[in-house]
Amino acid sequence: MIESLPRIAVVEDNEDLREELLFYLNHKGFPAWGAGSAESFWKLLHRQNVDIVLVDLGLPGEDGFSIVQFLHELGGYGSIVITARGDQQDRLRGLNLGADLFLVKPINFAQLADALVQLNRRLKHGATTESRAAEPGWQGWSLSPSGERLLGPGGKALPLSRQESALLSILLSSTNQVFTRQALHDLMFEHAAEPDLHRIDVILSRLRQKARREDIPIPIRTIFGRGIVFAGSAV
After folding, report:
1. Dihedral sign from CA coordinates of 210, 211, 212, 216
2. Arithmetic mean of pLDDT over the chain
3. Which residues share a beta bridge with 230?
4. How many Å apart are CA 150 and CA 56, to the nearest integer?
5. Quick check: 2 pLDDT over 60?
6. Which of 21, 67, 97, 205 would suit a FRET pair with 33, their CA atoms being 20 to 30 Å apart?
7. SS3 of 21, please?
């Protein structure tokens, strides 16, 4: 049986980007439609079916946070934030309001298509978005409510330092999104006087060493020339 693709709505006030997204999604077989504002989206929603909504935060009038929150309250919809505003505060706010993923522009369209398919599977299997910090990742990974442990498939648990927990919180919030070291540093150490990207490598190295000692293969990949990603299989 061929898996049906989810119906997508794109709420983006940048007309060029909105049209590019719609063209790509339709080309890939996703039934997709767009709106340039929250007001237009709510009007169209009464006439157009949708499973997952892509939401820009910086919309005219009602902003994207409001859409995410109301969709979460309605239930039955998936939502993915797509924004140029990638700071930790916006990320946490979006996820706490109910967003399933938080993606920072420029968007990799191929990765987005994969994320839509994966999210649709989660939604069909009754995944909840009530607690983003404790929600299992696509392969069964999550942080404990306190953030002091990484919980893996089969009941495995890895104790975490504060910085390891902060790093994993970011990576798990947008599974399969590649983060540059600069982006991770900015999110984790936003008040640092001078950037020191070596800090990210040190934290990651210690985390991997700890995981190897505990025989817990964490699926974190370092992609040469691009960055770091919490991927679908351990490396």
Report:
1. positive
2. 83
3. 220
4. 30
5. no
6. 97
7. helix
79 and 72 Cβ atoms separated by less than 8 Å: yes
Decide: 142 and 160 in contact? Cβ < 8 Å.
no
Query: Pseudo-torsion of CA 97, 94, 21, 119, nearest 10°?
Result: -60
Mean of pLDDT values over 93-100: 86
Average pLDDT over residues 131-148: 62
- Strand, coil or helix: what is 222? strand
Retrieve residue 123's tokens. 């939604």
pLDDT average, residue stretch 197-213: 92
SS3 66: helix
Q: What is the pLDDT of residue 204?
A: 92
1: exposed, middle or buried (Cβ count in 10 Å: 0-12, 13-18, 19+): exposed
Measure CA 197 to chain center: 22
What are the structure tokens assigned to 194, written together?
Answer: 């001078």
CB of 94 closer than 8 Å to CB of 122: no
Q: Rounded to two decimals, what is the model's pTM?
A: 0.56
Cβ(103)–Cβ(81) below 8 Å: yes
pLDDT of residue 192: 66
- pLDDT over 80 (residue 134): no
Tell me the average pLDDT across 21-26.
Answer: 96
How many of the other CB atoms lie within 10 Å of CB of 16?
A: 8
